[in-house]
Amino acid sequence: MAKTELIGLSKEEIAQEIAKIGEKPFRAKQLWQWLYLKGVTDFDKMSNLSKELRAKLKENYSITRPKIVAEQISKDKTHKWLLEFSDGQRIETVYIPEEDRGAVCISTQVGCAVGCKFCHTGSQKITRNLTAGEIVSQFMVARDAYQEWPTPTDETRYLSNIVVMGMGEPLHNPENVVKALKILSDGEGIAISKRKITLSTSGIAPKIPLVATDIGVKLAISLHAPNNEKRSQIMPINDRYPLEEVMKACQEYQRLSGHNRFITFEYLMLKDFNDTPDDAHELIELMKKYKIGAKFNLIPFNPWPGCSYEPSSNNRVRAFSKLLEDAGYEAPIRVARGQDILAACGQLKSKKSLD
Ligand code: SAH
Ligand code: SF4
Fold first, then answer.
1. What would the pLDDT profile of 104-151 be if each residue is shown by its tens digit?
2. What is the residue range of 145's domain?
């Protein structure tokens, strides 16, 4: 009989499995801690479980990490892994270190169906959704690499944040993403606080409120244009969920999260397309109209082989940022990380990416 994979099971499911094999409920908590607090992959290391129980677990269950097919560390210490799952499908995960902390950027799908024109991932068709276990295990691979097991109790950990900004559209795979983020934020396990997790979406409007209700993490919207006409040109999803719907869903997210959560609007700076002062003014009007507590993140475009856009000049980006700041919005310019190893935003791909 095939073994049941433990990574990706919710707390309730672990409890059910423990009951199924006739063990007492407190064993579920112990097992959970071995898996997610201590990061153990070998049943024999679970020292507070009896020999018989360990044998039973070994016989019926597995603890799997994806296979590391390749890994690269860029000049700026950004670390990228090409990971392979049991069916041979591959995705990329990236760790982006800052001075005293860092974010793990995780993927949610193999490929992406949204097909944004500027995105390397989007140029690759969707193959499948990742399971909750496959999403969680990406973070676990990063923790293995930086030896941050057991979960550090203080705030000095390197792997302090999670950004759901890798390959795929998380709100096209909401069930698995919700389940995975619940596991990743569980205080008795991996314990990344929800304040330190950001989910980025291209704007799947009907699913946006669930980011507040079902998970309670921070929200980022890939906006990239100040009006429908321009947005539809670069993001075909805009025809399905136009700006009005996305903005209303953002209002709803904010209402549901108690109005204390700012939404980050990501804005890709594309030369002569969306980077003029007129575009900035239109963007400000859009935000005022919907009265959303917003901040911006201006993203320099990361080119990839075969793409047809160019990045805006530094002067344009700085002028754009100043206009937004003068209107009262934070608008930092994102520093591109890991460009030399194609690990920056929008550069991830599952095949040949490390060639
Ligand atoms: N699918 C989700 C999350 C993954 S993409 C989303 O689109 O939000 C993460 C971020 O990278 C998005 O803001 C996306 O628009 C941006 N991005 C895509 N291609 C890029 C590129 N070539 N250069 C810079 N950022 C890019
Ligand atoms: Fe998909 Fe996001 Fe890339 Fe668009 S930017 S194609 S939604 S991964």
1. 999 999 999 999 999 987 677 899 999 999 999 999 999 999 999 999
2. 67-341
Which domain CATH number covers 48? Answer: 1.10.150.530
Higher pLDDT, 199 or 345: 199
CB-count burial class (<10 Å; 0-12, 13-18, 19+) for 278: exposed
Which protein residue has the closest C-alpha to ligand 1 atom 4?
A: 165
How many degrees, rounded to 5, is the angle at CA 244 between CA 243 and CA 249? 95
315 CB burial (10 A radius; 0-12, 13-18, 19+):
exposed
DSSP 83: E
Ligand 2 centroid distance, CA of 202 (Å): 7
Q: Are residues 71 and 56 in the same domain?
A: no
Expressed in angstroms and rounded, the spacing between residue 90 Cα and the centre of ligand 2 is 17
For position 154, what pLDDT does the model report? 72
Residues with CB under 6 A from ligand 1: 118-119, 165, 169, 200-202, 222, 266, 268, 299, 301-302, 345-346
* Residue from 181, 198, 200, 310 whose mutation best tests the ligand 1 pocket (most atoms within 8 A of CB): 200
- Cα 313 to ligand 2 centre (Å): 23
